[in-house]
Specification:
The chain contains 7 helices and 4 strands, in the order βαβαββααααα. By secondary structure, the protein is an alpha+beta fold. Strands 2-1-3-4 form a 4-stranded mixed sheet, covered by helices on one side. The longest helix has about 30 residues.
Length: about 190
């Protein structure tokens, strides 16, 4: 399997972490989005949306979108709950991550860390929604160690990717102690630093 990804992208790192966690062999192909490497004709043939990550499976089929990829990789593993309701809760968190977390936390991070925008110049709505997403995580961890009960699932992988670096977008994780503890648990479970 080949993984086309940019190491600065939490969405790409999700794929790497799941593959590593499951012991899946893969070739990482660094694809620098800041240099337009996801916009080349060769890359667009794999993913016409021009986004990383993309995996090319061993049989040659490409698959894009980080959460779709990690679900595919983790099929049948302990990262996907067996119970139908818990599996649906995992998916609920993963869908929410792409719609209500990543567009704010990751975008603020990109603007500050990679585009050089001062935190003070971030759009107020972006900051408000990012803090709202982090508070939603804080609340969601009130009664469990992980997002879906007491064991690591793909929901945790999906949401830790940008939460763990939220400070790079000006967010203060000190306001969210349960989130901070959860980030440490997920990083330990995935063996990431």
């Amino acid at each position: 399997m080949r993984v086309y990804g940019d190491s600065i992208s939490g969405n790409c790192l999700k794929v790497k972490w799941v593959a590593d966690h499951l012991g899946r062999k893969f070739e990482w192909i660094e694809t620098d989005i800041l240099r337009g490497e996801s916009r080349t004709a060769e890359f667009l043939a794999l993913n016409p949306a021009g986004q990383v990550p993309v995996v090319v499976l061993d049989d040659g089929r490409p698959l894009a979108q980080s959460n779709a990829i990690i679900i595919h990789l983790a099929e049948g593993s302990d990262l996907i709950p067996v119970d139908a309701y818990d599996r649906a809760r995992m998916l609920e968190w993963m869908f929410w991550e792409q719609y209500s977390h990543e567009p704010y936390v990751a975008v603020a991070r990109f603007q500050v860390r990679y585009a050089g925008k001062p935190v003070s110049e971030l759009e107020a709505r972006l900051v408000e929604r990012g803090n709202g997403a982090l508070q939603r995580l804080e609340d969601g961890l009130a009664s469990s160690s992980f997002l879906v009960g007491s064991v690591l699932s793909l929901a945790d992988v999906a949401l830790v990717a940008y939460t763990r670096v939220a400070h790079e977008g000006g967010f203060d994780l000190g306001r969210y102690p349960r989130v901070q503890a959860w980030v440490k648990r997920v990083e330990a479970a995935l063996k990431i630093a």
